[in-house]
Amino acid sequence: MIPFRLSARRLLLAGLALLAMPGLARAACEPAGGDTPPQGALAVAPQAGPRLYFHEDGARCPQAGAPCRSNAYLVPGDAVLLAGRDGKGWACVTFASPRGRVTWGWMREEALNPLPVISDRAADWVGRWRFGAEETLTLSAAPGGGLQLEGEASWGASDPERVKRGGVNVGSISTRVVPRQGRVAFALDDDGKPVPYEKTRFGCRLWMERHGPYLVVGGDQPGNCGGHNVTFNGLYRRS
Question: Which domains are delineated in the chain?
Answer without folding.
Answer: 27-114 (2.30.30.40), 122-238 (2.40.128)
